[in-house]
Amino acid sequence: MKVLAALLCALLAAPVRGQDLQLYLIANTPAHVEAWNVVRAAVRLMGLGAQAHPLPAERGMLMVSRGELDGAIGRTTLAAHDYPDLVMVAEPVFHYAPTAYAYRTFDVSKGWHSLRGHTLCVRRGYTLTDKRTRGIPVQRFNDDPSLLKMLQRGGCNIALLDRRNPAAQAAMASEPRLLQLLPPLEEMPLYLFLHKRHAALAPRLAEALKQVKAQ
Description:
By secondary structure, this protein is of the alpha/beta class. The protein has two domains: 7-95 and 188-214, 3-Layer(aba) Sandwich (D-Maltodextrin-Binding Protein, domain 2); 98-181, Periplasmic binding protein-like II (D-Maltodextrin-Binding Protein, domain 2), CATH 3.40.190.10. The protein contains eight helices and ten strands. The chain has helices at residues 2-13, 30-45, 57-65, 77-80, 127-132, 144-152, 166-174, 202-214; strands at 20-26, 49-55, 71-75, 86-96, 98-102, 120-123, 138-141, 158-162, 179-181, 188-195. The strands form two sheets. The protein has a five-stranded mixed sheet, with helices on both faces. α5 links the parallel β6 and β7 (138-141). The longest helix is centred in the N-terminal third of the chain and has 16 residues, at 30-45.
């Protein structure tokens, strides 16, 4: 009877054709949009469906951890560290390269340590950024345009965005004084994390992600 009950619970937890995985991503985040496109294609390759839910970072992780959503798109291992009920899909869905943008040149060759002595504009909810910039004055924003606008107004010395961030690329095209300071401070893989009830899907999703990325 116990075995039968366990099998029934597993079947109820597993998504089936016509039943979409409910996945969260951080709102207003281009990197997560790219990651979502990869994840959606991989899920379709498996014969399943998925829906994306843009949410604030912490709220989304809590909802996945409680099982209210099925997974989190594009988070680092640092972000998932405090959520033991999440299972990582081993194939990365995006490689995030946090990069400094400024209106004058700074030496960033020492990575995150190069930011000491400066003020920063950063995105709210990025666990990696929060951990790497402890002790540095920061202002946090919910979207990239607001962050770049504050940099332009002189509210901070450096803005931190991904190396390929579309808003930063557009800002540099319209305002040549804005500089992208290379190399990136770090490169960090982002992953899809599933609630533990979907742990059996993780190896299949990893293989599907590899196939999608190889196309």
